[in-house]
Amino acid sequence: MKKRIKAGLLAYGMSGKIFHGPFLAAHEGFDLVAIVERSKNQAIKDYPEVRIYREVEDLFNDSSIDLVVVNTPNYTHYEFAKAALNAGKHVLIEKPFSVLKAEAEELFSLAFRKGLKVLAYQNRRFDPDFMAVEKIIKSGRLGKITEAHFRFDRYRNAISPKAFKENRVPGAGIFYDLGAHMIDQAIALFGIPSEFSKTYGKFRENTEVDDYAQAHLKYDNGLNVYVTTNMLVVKPQPAYTFYGIKGTLIKHRTDVQENQLLAGMKPLDKGYGEEQKGNEGILFTLNTNGEVIEEQIPLEKGNYMFLFDAVYDAIVNDKEYFVKQNDILTQLSILEK
Questions:
Q1: How confident is the model at residue 108, as a pLDDT?
Q2: Contacts 24+ apart (CB under 8 A), 236-240
């Protein structure tokens, strides 16, 4: 009989309801047994058999729980992850892993001493748009990449009511929010940069945090990578643009899984993670006559369940996790202000 990991969620906002709960409930290797919901009672409607706690400390003290998912505001990640590890639990932490690199180093060290796993939730590696461009880049069809652009844009001119995103607290701002995804993807494709620089902007009226940010990652082989996020883009630009000596690759973001989950689709439903035709990326190359050839790159099927497969294998089978410690430490070096 397959070992099952008993898991608990520290919150049941959008993250718990959309990105964690459905996968823990559907995966054959997990049992979702407890959720912290401080005042509301939404979780019990979706998971009638789950224990509801009003305080995170009560979940930490639940001896039946093997894995704690830290999906609370950014500035609490370090504190709650440390408490969970000290309670003898494995930990899966939403991005950003922590606010500071030094905090992450402490968590990795603590987990190692206790024989536990502390893992990063970087679900965007399993988006179909990223998986499609990753396949082309790894195929070598672009040749040596000279320049790469990652964008994650939205249009939200008003100040969000979510205080932890808008107030001047550690880990707030768009770079910690959306930049964490793109930096992780850049590291996944190209490795650790040799140096970087950053630019921030505040453009919405009364904003206390950055709503524009760009990082320039430089590599020893001459590659320049630009990571940009902007909350005031009415018409989103391509999410991925790569220039190589053999061609150019362009792909827009679709957020297909997020939209499907918000609409009530479950991870095991037919069609989950599949992009609709017409959302293909375009590969531009030259033929022997110097003519430009446009080629649609095949759509991929994304699935955040792959992340939970990896979490299970890391905990039960001691398999190396796909997001390495050095990936996280580098990401936080770039994110830190």
A1: 98
A2: 236/151, 236/153, 236/154, 237/151, 237/153, 238/149, 238/151, 239/129, 239/150, 239/151, 239/152, 240/129, 240/130, 240/133, 240/148, 240/149, 240/150, 240/151, 240/281
Q: What is the pLDDT of residues 256-295, one digit of tens each?
A: 999 999 999 999 999 999 999 999 999 999 998 989 999 9
Any idea of the CA torsion for 325, 330, 336, 337, to the nearest 10 degrees?
170
Evaluate whether 336 touches 101 at the Cβ level (below 8 Å): yes
CATH fold of the domain at 5-122+306-321: Rossmann fold (3.40.50)
Per-residue model confidence (pLDDT) at position 160: 87
Q: Where are the domains of the chain?
A: 5-122+306-321, 128-254+268-302
15 C-beta neighbours (distance < 10 Å), count: 17
DSSP 3: -
Domain 128-254+268-302 fold is: Dihydrodipicolinate Reductase; domain 2 (3.30.360)
Q: CB neighbours of 2 closer than 8 A, spacing ≥ 6?
A: 28, 29
pLDDT tens digit sequence for 144-153:
999 999 999 9
Q: What is the 3-state secondary structure (H, E, C) of 91-158?
A: EEEECCCCCCHHHHHHHHHHHHHHCCCEEEECHHHHCHHHHHHHHHHHHCCCCCEEEEEEEEECECCC
pLDDT at 141: 95
Measure the CA dihedral 282/288/291/296, to 10°.
-20
State pLDDT tens for residues 116-152.
999 999 999 999 999 999 999 999 999 999 999 999 9
**Mean pLDDT on 303-315:** 98
Are 150 and 225 a contacting pair, CB within 8 Å?
yes
> Token match 């375009």: residue?
282
Pull the structure tokens for residue 70: 């830290």
